[in-house]
Amino acid sequence: MPSIDPACYHCGLPVPREASHVVAVDGRQRSMCCAGCEAAAQLIVDNGLTDYYRRRDAMPERRPEAIPAELLELGHFDHPEFQQGFVRPVGEHERETSLILEGITCAACVWLNERHIALQPGVSAVQVNYATRRVRVRWDERQIRLSGILGAIQAIGYRAYPYDAARAEDVAARERRTMLWRVFVAGFGMMQVMMYAVPTYFAGDGDMTLRAQLWFRWASLILTLPVVLYSAAPFFRHAVRDIRLRRLGMDVPVALGVGCAFLASLWATLANGPEVYFDSVTMFVFFLLGGRYLEMLARARAVRGIEELGKILPAFTERLPDWPCPDGEQVPVSQLVPGDCVRVRPGGVIPADGVVIDGVSEANEALLTGESRPVPKKVDSALTGGSINISSPLVMRVEQVGDSTRLAAIRRLMERAACEKPRLAAVSDNWATIFIVVLLTLATATWIGWHFIDPSRALWIFVSVLVVACPCALSLATPAALTVATDALARMGVLVTRGHAIEVLARVNHYVFDKTGTLTEGQMRLEETQLLGAMDAETLYALAAALEQGSEHPVASALRAAAAGKPPVAVSDVTAVTGHGMSGRYSGGAVWIGRPDFVAERAGLSVPVEVAGMELKTGTVIALADEHGWLGLFRFADALRPAAADYVRQLVAAGIPVTILSGDAPTAVAAVGERLGISDVHGAMTPQDKQAFIARLQEDPAKVVTMFGDGVNDAPVLAQAHVSVAMGSGTDLARNQADIVLLGENFARLGDGAGLARKTLWIIRQNLWWSFAYNLSVVPLAMMGWVTPLIAGVGMAGSSLLVVLNALRLQRRGRE
What we know:
Layout: E1 21-25, E2 28-32, H1 35-46, H2 51-55, H3 74-77, H4 80-83, E3 87-89, E4 94-102, H5 107-118, E5 123-129, E6 134-140, H6 146-155, E7 159-162, H7 165-202, H8 210-231, H9 233-244, H10 251-271, H11 278-302, H12 304-311, E8 316-319, E9 329-332, E10 341-344, E11 353-358, E12 361-364, H13 366-369, E13 375-377, E14 382-383, E15 388-389, E16 394-400, H14 406-419, H15 423-453, H16 455-468, H17 472-491, E17 494-496, H18 501-505, E18 510-514, H19 515-519, E19 525-531, H20 537-547, H21 554-562, E20 572-577, E21 581-586, E22 589-594, H22 596-603, H23 610-615, E23 620-626, E24 629-637, H24 642-653, E25 658-661, H25 666-676, E26 680-682, H26 687-697, E27 705-709, H27 715-720, E28 723-727, E29 740-742, H28 748-783, H29 789-815
Parallel strand pairs: 18-25, 18-27, 25-26, 27-28, 28-29
Antiparallel strand pairs: 1-2, 3-4, 4-6, 4-7, 5-6, 8-9, 8-10, 10-16, 11-14, 11-16, 12-13, 12-15, 17-29, 19-24, 20-21, 21-22, 22-23, 23-24
Helix pairs in contact: 7-8, 7-11, 8-10, 8-11, 9-10, 10-11, 10-16, 11-29, 15-16, 15-17, 16-28, 16-29, 17-28, 17-29, 20-21, 28-29
C-alpha cells in the first residue's frame, strides 16, 4: 500500500486508510481526506494560489473554511454578467474596477498592496486610497482574470470586494467594531495591570515581600497576555507579513518594541529578573489603538461625501405603467428602464435622469452641484437623479438609469480622484520608508550604546526609540488633507477628478478659456441664413442637420432644432474632422459643412464675400457647400454666462493673465474679449492650435496654466494644461477628460475652490513640518533615555491623530 500523509494536507483532518485522493502541490503529491478537499485543493493549484498553504497560520476549524473565501466565488467574479455592475471596459481587452480593501490599517498596507498587485501579470495600473480603503485596478483580461487579482490580494492577508455602498458600510462598521473591542481589552488590561504595578512603585525597601512581588508579576503577566495576543495581534501579523515579503512597514517597529518589552518581562517573571514592563506594554498598546480608532472615525468623517452619493437614491419609486392614467405602483428603482414614467411627490428624491412631462415644481440639486438655490422645473426640463423635488408633484420620463446616470458618473470621477496618488503623497511615502530604515538603525545603535552605559535601561530606551519615532504621522500628513479637501470641494460643486488637481490649482497664475460652452451658455441660436445656391431653405436645413446628426457641438444642436419638422434627407459616409467640420455624400456627390475656410479648402472654392459681412455682426458663421459650389451660410449667436463674465472680470481686475482660445471667427472672439476686458484673444484655432499655444506658455517654467473647456471636444488641450476645468452641465461626464469639473454654473465656486486648494497646501505643509519637527525632536530625547515607553506610545498616537484633526479643519472651509 502506498504511503500516505497522516492528515489531509488541505483541511488537516485524518486521512482514511481507504482514501485515494491525491493532488500535486508544488511538485509533491499531497493526500486529501475526501473528494471535496481534492477538488478545493486542485482549484487552488489551478488558479496559482498555492501560497495559501505556505502562508496559513493554522488549519481551518471547520470543513467549509478549508476553501479560501474568494475561491468560493471565483466563477461569479469572472462572469461578464456578474461584472456588469462594477467592471468598466477601457479598451478592447482592458478592464477597470473599483474594489473595497478590508484589512488596511496604515499607509504601509497601501504600499504593500500597490506593489504586490502591480507585480501580477496583465495588471497595468493599480492605485489604493488609504482614506477610503478603495483600490482601482486596471488589467488585461487576456493575461489575468479578476478572480486572480482577488486571489493575489488574499494571498498577502487582505480581502477585496467589488465596491458596493452597503457592503462598504458593513465592512467599515465591522472594522470599527473589531477595533473598539481591541481598544476595550487593552484598556481593561491596562487598568488591571496598573493596580498591581502602582504598589511596587511606591513600596519602600522591605515594605513588600518577595512572594508578593512575584505574585503581582504573575498576575500582571496573565492580564497582559490578552492585550498582547488579541489587542496587539494586528501589529505582529502585519510585521511578520512585511518581513516575509522583505519590506518594512509601520508595524515593524511597533511590533518589535511591544514584542521585546513583553518577552523581556516574561523572562524576568520566569527567572525572577530585576524589571518587568507589563504596565508600559498594556498602556502603549491601549494608547496606540485608541489613537488609531479615533483616526478611523476621523477618516470616515472625511470621506463621507462619496458614501453619501452612494446612498442618495431611493430604494423604491412610483411607476405609472399606463400614463396618462394616474394609477401608480411601487417598484424598486433598480427595475426602472428608459421610457418608464415615474411620479415624484414633493420631498421625494428623483430616482433617475429624465425629463419632466407633467407638472411645475422646483428641485434642490445642492448635493450634486453645490448650488443651494432651488432650480425651477417645468415640462421638458431635465431632471437629475439624486436631486430632491421640493414643492409640487412631477411626472417624469426616465431617460438614463443605473451606471448611465449623471450621479453615477460623478461618483466614478470622485472615486478616480480618490484612488490616484498625487506627487505630494508619493514623496511622503518615500520619506516614510526611508525614515523606518533610519529608525531601526538608530534604535539598534541606542540599544548597543546603553548596554555599555546602563544595561538595566537599554531595553526600555530601545522600545521608546522604536515607538516614539514611528512615522505614521508623516505618511498621513498628505493623504488626510487631500481627502478632506476633495470632499469639501465636491460639496461646493467643484468635482476633483485627478489626484494632482488640488496641488496645481493652488499655484495657477495664467487662465485660458475656450469660448463656446464655457464663457458662453453653449445654447446656440440660429440668427441668420443666406442661400448661395439653387437649393431651397427647407432642404438646406435638412441637409445641414443630417450632416451634423452625430455631433455634440452646440452648433449641431441648433441646426437640428432649425430642421425640426422638415422632411429628412439621406446622407452617407459622414466623417468628422475635429475642430473643422463634417464631410459626407448627398445625392451621389460630396458635401461639406463647417468653418468657411475648411469648406473652401475641401471644395476647392474661395471663401464667399458674404462671410465677412456676417462675421461683423458677431457670432459663429458656418458654411455648407457641395462639389458644384456654395449652398448657404448660417450665423449663430450665443449669450455670455453672467457668472463666467463676472469671474473673468475679477481675474482681469486682479492683474491675472487671461486668454481666450476659440475655433470661432476672430471677429466673434474679439467681440467677446472686448466685452470682458480681455485683450489676449485668438480665433479660428483648431484643437491642435490650442494645444500648441498652451505648450508655448508652458515653456516659461514660472507659468502654471489652467484651461477651461467643454471636457470632450477639447481633450488634447485639456491634457496639455497643468490643470484643466470643464463645465459639467453640458457634456457627458462619463467621458470627461478634465482634472476638475464645475458641476453648476457658479464660477464663483471655482474661485472659492482655488482658495481652498491654497489652504490645503498650507495644511499639508503644517502637517509635514509637525511630523518632521516631532520626529527630529523626540528621537534624541528618547535615545538619551528621557522618554518612557508610555510617553512614546502617547506621542506616536497623538501625532497621527493631530494631523488628521488638522486636515478636518478644511471641512469648515468647504461649508462656508
